[in-house]
Design a protein that fits this description.
Layout lengths: L9 E2 L9 H10 L18 H18 L5 E6 L2 H13 L5 E6 L2 H10 L5 E7 L21 E4 L1 E2 L4 E2 L11 E4 L16 E5 L10 E6 L16 H6 L9 H16 L2 H22 L3 E2 L11 E6 L5 H10 L2 E2 L10 E4 L6 H18 L1
Parallel strand pairs: 1-13, 3-4, 3-5, 5-8, 8-9
Antiparallel strand pairs: 2-10, 6-7, 9-10, 11-12, 12-14
Helix pairs in contact: 1-6, 2-6, 3-4, 7-9
Bound molecules: pyridoxal-5'-phosphate.
Length: about 375
C-alpha cells in the first residue's frame, strides 16, 4: 500500500501536519537532483525556467482541484495565515472603513484583533461563546456598507466548521480556510478572498495560498507593504521577491497526490467517513466528550476531553507509546485533539478509535 505511513506512527498534529507518504518519498528521491538538472529545487533560481515550470504546474493543478474560476488570481506568499490577518484589511479597506468579523473560535478572534489595528471599525458581527457552534446568520449584525465580511470556515483549535457558506450579498466574503482547504469542495465563487496557511492540507509551513477575485485587486492602501500587496503579487506571478520555493514545490506534489486519489470530492468522502466514526466513538463512550454542536463539527480537527481530566496525561503518554502522537489539545484549551487531514490514512483513525476503546476499558 503506497499510502501506508512507513514510520510506525500516526501523526495527529494540527500543523505542521502529516504529509502523504508518497510525496515524502518523491521529495526524497528528487532532493539532490531534480529531473536531471543536477540541483535541488532548493538551489534553483526562482526566475529560472525549471522553477517557473514547477510553480506554474502547481498553480494549474490547484486551479483544477478547486475549479478556481478564471477571474480569480492565486498567490503563493510568505507570512502564513497570520500575515493575511493584516493583509486583508490593507488590501481591501481604507483605515476609516468598516469591516465585519464573525468569530467562531480562536483564529477568528486573532484575525479580528489584527484587523482592528488597520481599521477604525472592525465590527464583530457575531461571536459564539463558548466557541462550540456557528451563530445562525439571522442573528448576525452585519454592516450594510462593510468592505468585507471575514469568517474562519474551520476553526482548527475548537474544531468548529461552518455547515453552510453564509450569503453576504454584494459584500465580499473573506474566509480563512487554512484547515479546510482541499478537504472538501469549496465553491470559490461564493467568496471574494480565500487564504490558507499551507501546513495542514497543502504542504510545509512557510507558504500561504491566497485566492482572490480579480475585481478586488487594486483596492490596496498605498502604505501596504509590497510583499503583502495582492495586486503587486498578482502582477508579478508571486515573484515580487523570492517566494518560498521549496514549500511551493512540495505543495505541487501534494496537489498531484490529491488529484491521483480522485480529487477533492474523493478526499471529502474519506474525510467524512473518518470523522463520522471518530465522533461516533466519542459520543458512544462513557469516557470521552466533544462539546461542538453536531452540525458544526469539524471534519478535520476533532477535540475531545476525558470525563476524568487527571487521566489526560496518562491518555497522551499511552497513546504516544502506541504510536499515536501529537494528540495534545491546543495549549490554550487543553484536552485532546485529533487532526485528521487528507494525509491521515483511515487506518490511523481506526487505530485511534481502537486505542480509545481499549483505554476506556482499562481506565473507564
Ligand atoms: C484557521 C487558522 N488560521 C490561522 C492560523 C495561523 O497560521 P500561520 O501559523 O500560518 O500564521 C492557523 C494555524 O494553525 C489556523 O489553523
Amino acid at each position: 500500500m503506497d499510502d501506508d505511513i512507513s514510520q510506525m506512527i500516526y501523526n495527529f498534529s494540527a500543523g505542521p501536519a502529516v504529509l502523504p507518504a508518497p510525496v515524502l518519498r518523491q521529495a526524497q528521491e528528487e532532493l539532490p537532483d531534480w529531473h536531471g538538472t543536477g540541483m535541488s529545487v532548493m538551489e534553483m533560481s526562482h526566475r529560472g525556467s525549471d522553477f517557473i515550470r514547477i510553480a506554474e504546474t502547481a498553480e494549474a493543478r490547484l486551479r483544477e482541484l478547486m475549479a478556481i474560476p478564471e477571474d480569480y488570481r492565486v498567490l503563493f506568499l510568505q507570512g502564513g495565515a497570520t500575515g493575511q490577518f493584516a493583509a486583508v484589511p490593507m488590501n481591501l479597506s481604507a483605515q476609516d472603513a468598516v469591516a465585519d468579523y464573525v468569530i467562531t473560535g480562536m483564529w477568528g478572534k486573532r484575525a479580528h484583533a489584527e484587523g482592528a489595528k488597520f481599521l477604525d471599525r472592525a465590527n464583530v458581527a457575531a461571536s459564539s461563546s463558548p466557541s462550540t457552534y456557528v451563530p445562525p446568520q439571522d442573528e448576525w449584525r452585519l454592516t450594510p456598507d462593510a468592505d468585507y465580511v471575514h469568517i474562519t470556515l474551520n476553526e482548527t483549535i475548537q474544531g468548529v466548521r461552518f455547515a453552510t457558506v453564509p450569503d453576504t450579498g454584494v459584500v465580499p466574503l473573506v474566509a480563512d480556510v487554512s484547515s479546510i482547504i482541499l478537504s472538501e469542495p469549496i465553491d470559490v465563487s461564493d467568496f471574494g478572498v480565500l487564504y490558507a496557511g499551507a501546513q495542514k492540507n497543502i504542504g510545509p509551513s512557510g507558504l500561504v495560498v491566497v485566492i482572490v477575485a480579480e475585481d478586488l485587486l487594486g483596492r490596496a492602501r498605498a502604505t501596504t507593504p509590497q510583499v503583502w500587496n495582492w495586486f503587486e503579487n498578482a502582477k508579478s506571478g508571486s515573484m515580487l521577491n523570492t517566494p518560498p520555493t521549496y514549500a511551493w514545490y512540495i505543495a505541487g506534489l501534494v496537489f498531484d497526490w490529491v488529484a491521483d486519489h480522485g480529487g477533492v470530492a474523493a478526499m471529502a468522502e474519506v474525510n467524512r467517513r473518518k470523522a463520522t466514526k471518530l465522533y461516533a466513538a466519542i459520543d458512544q463512550s462513557g469516557c470521552y466528550a466533544n462539546p461542538v454542536a453536531p452540525a458544526n463539527r469539524s471534519l478535520m480537527n476533532v477535540p475531545f476531553t476525558l470525563a476524568h481530566p487527571d487521566l489526560e496525561p496518562v491518555f497522551l503518554a499511552e497513546a504516544r507509546a502506541a504510536g499515536l502522537v501529537n494528540l495534545e489539545g491546543h495549549r490554550n484549551v487543553g484536552g485532546m485533539r485529533a487532526s485528521i487531514y487528507n494525509a491521515m490514512p483511515e487506518g490511523g483513525v481506526d487505530a485511534l478509535i481502537d486505542f480509545m476503546k481499549e483505554f476506556e476499558t482499562r481506565h473507564g
